[in-house]
Automatic annotation (TrEMBL):
Name used for this protein in its record: Restriction endonuclease subunit S
GO biological process terms held by the UniProt record: DNA restriction-modification system
Family membership noted in the UniProt record: Belongs to the type-I restriction system S methylase family.
InterPro entries in the cross-refs: Restrct_endonuc_typeI_TRD (IPR000055), Restrct_endonuc_typeI_TRD_sf (IPR044946), Type-I_RE_S_subunit (IPR051212)
Domain Type I restriction modification DNA specificity: residue ranges: 85-260, 404-545
Signal peptide positions on this chain: none
Organism, as annotated: Pseudoduganella lutea
Coiled coil: 253-280
Length: 667
């Protein structure tokens, strides 16, 4: 693919999902391949620069300022994946810079505030797009064993141990805001003679990122890049005077990407506003004629208003709200069956009270509502049309009782309009309580609490699980009258009307919310004539199916756009854009026994925990080992698993490992 073809496809890349990020990677890749600028005829040869670097390194070794490097073999042609301009050269990374690993210290020795004799210490969290100098820890200066372990201007800090998607992340030290060292999970890449900005550019490139990750050892949730894996990587080196030109051009193009990113965000914001206004106009229509006009405007501009699959979700929500407000069906000549519904509900409630399934409750009034419904509909408190029953409480003392063990529905099992039954748990109840807490086909299950936008989730139980109960955080509602459809009630609760009510009525903490039975019983339930219920539900279902088709089309369009962008980049550079992997979670186990040394690792092996054990007669407590390791708890467990797998540390007995509560995992 030539440059002309690339320019023709530029828009496809930029507008694809994550397209700006792909353009940034493409710019970096072209820069390090010498394809971003035309090299002038007067340019020198990079081999002269390599000779200068070699001379400088030799002088530093002679002066005792640099340890004698381990000789590395010449680069073989088979190691190279692309060619360079004739006056460029490949050289191994370790021959053009120093890679200095950070200091190690016991976790107990790190401080979050300044103290006498302590110095600032950078961690992996400080390696962002720029070095973050605000969130620092402090350690005793005595842990800095070598002069090269002080942060220097021009260093590129690199995350050496992290999750796979973050390992290899780099940041250039443009200024040293205070005297600082750096921890053992990051390293400083310090160039000799090379322009620091150019080396930083190389280390960010897809080529170098892939090569570094390719050398990493990986455990369950942590990837570790070794110094021995980094040093041999063939690195593209341009003539010295070309490096600053390349950096300037990359900065210029990255600034253009920034502007393009801002333009896309502004366009997206405008598009969102237009779409929401169009949907609001449809939802606010008060006559069939107005509804037809606003709907036509929406559909005529569908392609402009709905660009990503998530946009269709707003349309689905609007359709549900319209259905609940009577805007998707023609007014019926029938009257609301509220009297029949209330009578049937009263009869069922009396039966439950007589049989001891529930106690007589105080009368409840309907909650206020500003929603406008058709005039021939009736609004009644939910308590008048359904019998609401609380669920079984966990943790009761049932010793000596005649009990039975049954599966039960918890909040996580009840979604909006469906159930997730792959994680059903069981609970013991007294046999005489089975009829009270049993869920029957047709029951409405309504969540009491959860995240603020998940309160009041409702689904109709379809059966399929024998003797299934419901927990006390899930309400059960039975609508006994055939004149009020369960599907209508489910739709109302899951619509914006229901969600707004529950969100407003719920008791909210920092990130959780809950409703009580009184608030559920007082919900203002709209009751249209039965024939309107029967007419609107299939109509809404048809519109929902069409919306899902549109969503699938947009998803397919996004996938094709992404594939086209990746193919364009690959055709132009020969590189493939990596797909992001999901973040891996920390292990949920906690060691409570001593750890013992197994097979002694080779001196070159990356076995810091086994090394510590060897220094302490081959045995040490897990907590003490972690503190001496000096890293984050997640990295400690990952490193421990790796060394156990190699046999360097003996496998702990099963009884010596226990489950760790989720809220105590360090992050």
């Amino acid at each position: 693919m030539d440059a002309q073809q690339f320019l023709a496809d530029f828009g496809h890349i930029a507008n694809a999902p994550g397209g700006i990020g792909k353009l940034r990677k493409l710019i970096l890749e072209l820069a390090i391949r010498g394809e971003l600028l035309t090299t002038p005829d007067s340019a020198t040869d990079a081999r002269n620069l390599l000779a200068e670097i070699s001379s400088v390194r030799a002088e530093l070794v002679h002066a005792g300022k640099l340890r004698r490097p381990t000789p590395q073999p010449d680069i073989e042609a088979s190691e190279l994946s692309f060619t360079l301009p004739t006056n460029w050269a490949f050289e191994r990374l370790g021959n053009v810079c120093e890679i200095v690993r950070g200091v190690t210290f016991p976790s107990s020795k790190k401080q979050t505030s300044r103290a006498s004799g302590a110095v600032a210490c950078l961690r992996t969290s400080n390696v962002q797009a720029e070095v973050d100098w605000d969130d620092l820890i402090f350690v005793d200066e005595e842990f800095v064993g070598r002069e090269d372990q002080w942060v220097q201007k021009g260093d590129t800090m690199i995350s050496m141990a992290n999750s796979y998607e973050l390992v290899g992340k780099v940041a250039l030290v443009r200024e040293v805001k205070e005297r600082a060292t750096f921890g053992g999970f990051i390293a400083a890449v310090r160039p000799h003679v090379l322009e620091p900005d150019y080396l930083y550019l190389v280390l960010r490139s897809p080529y170098m990122q892939a090569r570094m990750r390719g050398t990493a050892s990986q455990t369950t949730n942590i990837a570790n890049i070794s110094l021995g894996g980094m040093r041999p990587i063939p690195t593209p080196i341009p003539p010295k005077e070309e490096q600053s030109r390349i950096v300037a051009k990359v900065d210029e193009l990255m600034a253009l990407c920034d502007k393009l990113d801002v333009q896309q965000q502004e366009r997206r914001k405008l598009q969102n506003n237009l779409r929401q206004s169009a949907l609001q106009a449809v939802a606010s229509a008060i006559s069939p004629h107005e509804l037809q006009n606003t709907w036509e405007r929406l559909t005529d501009n569908f392609g402009r208003l709905f660009r990503v699959p998530e946009d269709v979700d707003e349309l689905v929500a609007a359709l549900k709200n319209m259905a609940v407000r009577g805007l998707l069906s023609l007014p019926s000549t029938s009257t609301s069956p509220v009297d029949e519904v209330v009578a049937d509900c009263d009869n069922l409630r009396d039966q439950y009270i007589d049989s001891g399934l529930m106690r007589r409750q105080k009368l409840i009034s309907v909650a206020e509502s500003e929603v406008v419904y058709p005039k021939h509909w009736v609004i009644a408190p939910f308590d008048k049309v359904a019998v609401v029953i609380g669920g079984v409480t966990k943790g009761r003392d049932l010793r000596g009782r005649d009990v039975v063990t049954c599966p039960y529905l918890a909040v996580a099992n009840v979604q909006r309009g469906f159930f997730k039954l792959d994680t059903l748990k069981t609970i013991q109840i007294e046999k005489k309580e089975l009829s009270k807490y049993l869920v029957k086909e047709g029951d409405l299950l309504i969540t009491e609490g959860g995240d603020w936008d998940k309160v009041g989730r409702t689904a109709i139980w379809q059966g399929g699980v024998e003797d299934c109960l419901h927990q006390n955080h899930v309400f059960k509602a039975r609508v006994p009258s055939s004149a009020l459809l369960n599907e209508w009630v489910e739709l109302v609760f899951n619509s914006g009307v229901g969600r707004d009510y529950f969100a407003g009525a719920s008791k909210q903490t920092t990130n959780l919310a809950s409703i009580n039975m009184k608030q559920l019983r007082s919900f203002p339930m709209p009751i249209p004539p039965l024939d309107e219920q029967q007419a609107v539900l299939p109509k809404l279902d048809a519109l929902m199916k069409q919306s899902f088709v549109w969503r699938e089309q947009l998803e397919r369009k996004q996938r094709l756009a992404s594939l086209l962008a990746d193919a364009t980049v690959a055709a132009f550079t020969g590189i493939a854009i990596e797909q992001e992997e999901e973040s891996m979670k920390a292990p949920q186990t906690e060691l409570i026994a001593p750890l013992r040394l197994g097979t002694t690792p080779d001196i070159k092996a990356q076995a810091p925990l086994a090394t510590i054990l060897a220094r302490h007669n081959g045995e040490i407590g897990a907590k003490d080992l972690w503190q001496r390791f000096g890293g984050e708890i997640d990295a400690f467990y990952a490193q421990l698993k790796a060394e156990v797998a190699h046999g360097w540390i003996l496998e702990p007995a099963p009884a010596e490992m226990r489950e760790k509560p989720a809220d105590t995992v360090s992050t």
